[in-house]
């Protein structure tokens, strides 16, 4: 039933197209129109009133509600023939259907005499502005008489040939109501524009931006429809105004469809979003078309109004299960569409209804959507506040985790006879996945370790804590480098660690000045003797990977002044570098800094590689150095 209802509405809109294509003379009063169906007649000529009153055959019937493609110098004449068959005079007002700033002259030919009057804007002399938005002509039709009204329109503003004949009392009454409703309408739009404009500038939310620009498009459209745009901006250039005003219905539909996509919160790139995006671009077709033909632009806007408005209602109803706010959208969007259909079918025969009904419907739509958007903003603010609270709690947790992680790492300089140690640790974020430590196995043996947990941040830091426990356990169970790595591997597998861990372990014998080095998927250790750098270590599998991993200890003899460096790959890797010898370059740089104190050598080497990286390190950095005394 619902689908049938939408289809009926859509067909009703198409049926109304025929009525929309005809100019109309709306009559409110007890008098007759002599010409068939009350249609107006027109001619484009350079003649004056005396000339156009002569040959009857020169007049042609209007076939469209808007006379298009007028150019500078054109003088457009309209004629209406009236009959008053009553025994009393009729005080009447002829009011143009749309406000323009043409220089307009009205002539009344009655009982052999010609009366004239001026109304409307004056683009030529610019010496006055209209005191009424739409051009109008007040006159008296004598009892039992016939009369002809001639309307001369100068300046090339496209004329909407849609006039209303009113008794003067009805004009005074309806004119006041029209101003009141139009004032409320534009006042509401200005309030909404200022309110949501301020929110848009401060929050930049998608739905607020779409609603704001929809309000802007609607405001410009109705400013043109009611004449405000012509009064103020129209003084600049009538030709430019013709081009700018013609595609406005398409622009407001494009803005409305953009707002629809944001309001329904459709996923970007989804089928529904792509369909609506296509419709949005189609609605903008009249914009470039206006520079080619205003007549075709008006026709295109008529078709778009008949298809896009009801079509959007139907489409949103069809995707109501995908878009949870579709019912709210249908409630807000349906009012102006219904009024537009009523206007196309000629239902709004009253002067007041024709002038304010669509604006009243749009006002209802704007208020409803303002409520809906305001509710979304409130919901967003609540969610953002909750997210801020959650973020603060997370930051507190991270700070606590950072402090715990720092307790796992040794600080200061150990007091080992015959061996000086210095370290440099720089996590990429507040929490890092690198780990380093040293431990005195006995009076004669000291173990140093550097490990790198895959990843960064809190997860890697938590796994680094597991590595710390594994190392503390391993140094109790084993006393050489390979055995320590094997014990750590078994412990990590038992703990169920789900990240890969690389490590380099060095055990230094103070008595023999020898060092055992074992690797577990980690960069080699670097021994600097004099000005020479030597990478040391046999590659072994990563820790925590398999129970059957085997590690090999490499032995190297040291002498006083020699240095041993253990590091993670973050110390020497350069993002986007194509070099494959960065570790060797790092070793050579350490050797070139051997004349500096140990801690200073670490700082100088990392400063050099930071410069190569342009201070864009993408990994944690750990560098541990030991010097034989």
From TrEMBL:
Protein name: Protein serine/threonine phosphatase
Residues of the signal peptide: 1-20
Gene3D superfamilies (UniProt xref): 2.60.40.2380, PPM-type phosphatase domain
Domain of life: Bacteria
Record's keyword terms, sorted: Hydrolase, Membrane, Signal, Transmembrane, Transmembrane helix
Transmembrane segments: 179-201, 208-228, 240-257, 278-297, 303-319, 326-344, 356-374
Matches recorded under PANTHER family: STAGE II SPORULATION PROTEIN E (PTHR43156:SF2), STAGE II SPORULATION PROTEIN E-RELATED (PTHR43156)
Residues of the PPM-type phosphatase domain: 416-628
GO molecular function annotations of the record: phosphatase activity
């Amino acid at each position: 039933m619902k689908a049938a209802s939408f289809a009926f509405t859509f067909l009703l809109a198409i049926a109304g197209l025929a009525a929309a294509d005809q100019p109309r003379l709306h009559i409110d009063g007890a008098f007759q129109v002599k010409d068939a169906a009350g249609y107006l007649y027109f001619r484009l000529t350079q003649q004056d009133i005396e000339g156009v009153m002569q040959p009857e055959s020169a007049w042609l019937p209007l076939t469209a509600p808007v006379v298009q493609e007028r150019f500078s110098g054109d003088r457009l004449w309209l004629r209406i023939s009236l009959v008053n068959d009553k025994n009393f005079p009729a005080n009447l007002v002829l009011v143009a259907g749309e406000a323009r700033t043409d220089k307009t002259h009205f002539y009344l030919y009655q009982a052999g005499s010609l009366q004239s009057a001026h109304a409307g804007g004056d683009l030529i002399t610019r010496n006055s502005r209209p005191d009424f938005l739409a051009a109008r002509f007040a006159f008296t039709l004598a009892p039992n008489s016939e009369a002809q009204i001639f309307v001369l329109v100068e300046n090339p503003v496209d004329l909407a040939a849609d006039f209303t004949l009113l008794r003067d009392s009805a004009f005074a009454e309806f004119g006041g109501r029209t101003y009141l409703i139009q004032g409320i309408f534009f006042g509401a739009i200005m309030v909404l524009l200022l309110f949501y404009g301020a929110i848009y500038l401060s929050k930049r939310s998608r739905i607020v931006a779409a609603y704001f620009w929809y309000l802007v498009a609607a405001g410009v459209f109705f400013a043109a429809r009611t004449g405000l745009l012509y009064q103020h901006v129209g003084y600049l250039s009538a030709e430019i105004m013709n081009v700018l005003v013609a595609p406005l219905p398409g622009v407001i539909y494009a803005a409305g469809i953009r707002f629809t996509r944001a309001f329904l919160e459709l996923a970007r790139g989804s089928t529904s979003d792509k369909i609506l995006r296509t419709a949005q671009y189609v609605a903008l077709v009249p914009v470039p078309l206006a520079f080619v033909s205003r007549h075709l632009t008006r026709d295109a806007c008529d078709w778009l109004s008949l298809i896009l408005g009801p079509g959007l209602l139907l489409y949103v109803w069809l995707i109501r299960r995908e878009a949870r706010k579709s019912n709210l959208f249908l409630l807000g969007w349906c009012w102006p569409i219904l009024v537009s259909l009523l206007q196309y079918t000629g239902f709004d025969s009253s002067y007041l209804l024709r002038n304010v009904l669509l604006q009243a419907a749009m006002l209802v739509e704007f208020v409803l959507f303002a409520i809906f958007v305001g509710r979304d903003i409130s919901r967003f603010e609540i969610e953002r506040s909750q997210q801020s609270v959650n973020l603060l709690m997370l930051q507190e947790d991270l700070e606590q985790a950072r402090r715990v992680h720092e307790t796992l790492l040794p600080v200061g300089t150990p007091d080992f006879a015959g061996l000086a140690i210095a370290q440099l640790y720089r996590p990429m974020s507040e929490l890092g996945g690198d780990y380093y430590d040293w431990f005195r196995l006995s009076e004669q043996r000291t173990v140093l370790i550097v490990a790198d947990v895959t990843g960064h941040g809190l997860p890697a830091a938590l796994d680094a804590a597991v590595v710390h426990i594994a190392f503390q356990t391993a140094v109790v169970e084993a006393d050489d480098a390979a055995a320590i790595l094997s014990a750590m591997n078994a412990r990590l597998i038992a703990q169920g660690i789900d990240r890969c861990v690389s490590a380099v372990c060095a055990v230094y014998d103070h008595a023999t000045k020898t060092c055992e080095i074992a690797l577990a998927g980690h960069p080699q250790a670097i021994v600097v003797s004099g000005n020479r750098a030597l990478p040391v270590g046999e590659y072994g599998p990563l820790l925590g990977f398999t129970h059957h991993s085997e590690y090999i200890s490499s032995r190297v003899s040291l002498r006083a002044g020699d240095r041993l460096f253990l590091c993670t790959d973050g110390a020497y890797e350069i993002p986007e570098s194509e070099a494959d010898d960065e570790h060797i370059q790092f070793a050579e740089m350490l050797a070139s800094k051997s004349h500096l104190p140990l801690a200073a050598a670490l700082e100088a080497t990392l400063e050099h590689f930071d410069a190569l990286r342009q201070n864009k390190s993408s990994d944690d950095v750990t560098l541990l150095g030991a010097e034989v005394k």
